[in-house]
Amino acid sequence: MSGRMMRASHTLNAGPHAGFEHASASFTAATPPVLEVDPGEPFSLDARSLLTGGLFESTGEYEKLSIPVTGPVLVRGVQPGDVLRVDVHEIRIANRGAMVTLPGRGGFSGGLARRGHIVEIADGEVRFDDGVTIPVRPMIGKIGIAPAGAGPDSSTVGSHGGNMDCKDVTAGAAVILPVQVPGAMLYAGDLHAAQGDGECSLTGVEVEGTVVLSCRVLPAAPLRRPVVLSGGSVITIGDGGDLDEAARNALDDMLELLAADRQWPREKAAMLLSAAADVSVSQLVNARASVKVTLASRYFSTPPFSIDPPTRNA
Known about the structure:
The structure is a single chain. The chain has 314 residues and is mainly beta. The chain has two domains: 15-76 and 88-214, Acetamidase/Formamidase-like domains (Jelly Rolls, Sandwich); 227-299, Endonuclease I-creI, CATH 3.10.28.20. It has helices spanning 55-58, 243-262, 266-276, and strands at residues 5-6, 17-18, 23-24, 35-37, 43-47, 69-75, 83-94, 96-101, 115-122, 125-129, 132-135, 139-145, 157-158, 161-162, 174-178, 186-192, 209-218, 227-230, 233-240, 278-283, 289-296. The strands form three sheets. Strands 1, 2, 5, 7, 15, 17, 18, 19, 20 and 21 form a ten-stranded mixed sheet that branches. Strands 3, 4, 6, 12, 13, 14 and 16 form a seven-stranded mixed sheet that branches. Helix 2 packs across helix 3. The longest helix is centred in the last third of the chain and has 20 residues, at 243-262. The radius of gyration is 19 Å and the shape is globular. The model is unreliable at 6-11 and 308-314 (pLDDT under 50).
C-alpha cells in the first residue's frame, strides 16, 4: 500500500477477501471468479490507484497509467433477470492520494497541461495545498457487474454500472443493478478520497483502499440501468455519448420507477420530478458521460426505493 490505511471507527468482520493481484481492466464474465460468496455474506476487495506500484512518482507519462477494478466476485444463486443489491458497508482509504490533468482531457475550454499532484490525507481532510484542505468523503468510482457479451473497459459506464463516478456511492449506500450473467460477476475499484460532481479535471483524489460489500437479490423491478440508494434518496444513473443523452436516460429511468411505484401516468410522474428531483452531472470527462437524477425516497411508496439502505457501521 502507498501509506497507512485510515481505519473506520468500526470494522465489519468481513469474510472472503480479494487483493491487488486480482485487478482487471474490464468488466468481463470471461475471467474466473476470485471469490464466491452467498447472498448477504460480507466480503472485502482491495482497490488499486494511480499510486499503486510507484510509476506515478517515477514517470510523467500519466497517460500510461490506469485504474483497474478488482474482481470478479460470483454471487451464488444469482441468475440473469435478477435484480442485485450491493450494499457498501465500509470504505477504508490510504493516507496519500493523487490527481492528474492531461492534454485533451477534462471539461475546460482551452485544454490543460500534463500535471500530477500528490496529496496527504489526515484527520478527515485532504491537504491539497498550504492552507487549503478538502473534507474527506470516500466513495467508489467504479462498481458494476459483467454484462452479457464482451466486457467493457473498466473506465466505461453503462447498464452494468461501471465507471459511474457517482460521489453518492459512499459507506452506507447501496447500488442496485440488473443482472445479465449467472453469478452477476461483481467488480469494484477506483476509490476517491473526495470528488465533486462532474470530476471536471479528469480525476478525483485517487486513492488506494479496501471496500467491504455484501450482495442480495431483490424482487423484480423495472430496471434498465444502475440505481443508487444514498442519504435518503433514490438516484438513477444515465450514461451517454454526451450529457444530453445521459440526462435523458437518467430521467427516463426515474420516470419509469416512479410511475410504476405510484401507478401514475407518465405525465403526472414527470410533473413530480420537475418539482422535486435534481438533475446533475456525475462525470463528464470520459468517453461516455454519466448524469444522475436524485429524488428523495419519501416520494416512493414501496421498497426498496421507499426506505434508506441499512448501515452496518456507525
